Amino acid sequence: MLPFDAIEALPASDELIVHRLPWDVDPLLVARAAADHERVSHFASELTSLTGLGVAWSAGTGSGEDRFHVADAELAELRLAAKARFVVGFAFEPDGTASPTWDGFSPVAVELPEIAVLPDEVIVALRPGRSGAHVVTEWSDLTDPGPLRPHHPSEIQIESEPSSARYK
Fold first, then answer.
1. SS3 17
2. Can you give the pTM of this predicted structure?
3. Mean pLDDT of successive 10-residue stretches along the chain, which has 168 residues
4. Between vectors from CA 155 to CA 48 and to CA 42, what angle results, nearest 5°?
């Protein structure tokens, strides 16, 4: 599923290092295979898709109107933006939200996945002191989840909060 032999050969370093490996894999397949792991993200659009596994680096401790500037400054210090792919999340309210639904989410978060899977490459980000062998140990249990099973409409339950009956 992933180029584990190539990843395992990546050496440790004293600094954050990003490696790009050409590899043809469906990011959604990897996301499905990693469903039981923590820190898995998936993004898809008409143009591309990305699955992120783990976190090698994160930023975004700011809040308020300047939260994006704070995160951008932290990101600029890395000098990796051209090589890496980041996952970004944010609240529409400058200081987050008071809704308990979103507790635990910061006003802005920028994460560099330890493994970023794109349709034609795998990007591996190694934290200082962490080798590719460490990464393989953590993620080597990923196996092909098999084909998607089509769902019958009666199997799908939709719940709206607040209830759609309250929409005006």
1. strand
2. 0.81
3. 95 94 95 92 93 92 83 84 80 74 78 96 96 95 86 71 62
4. 20
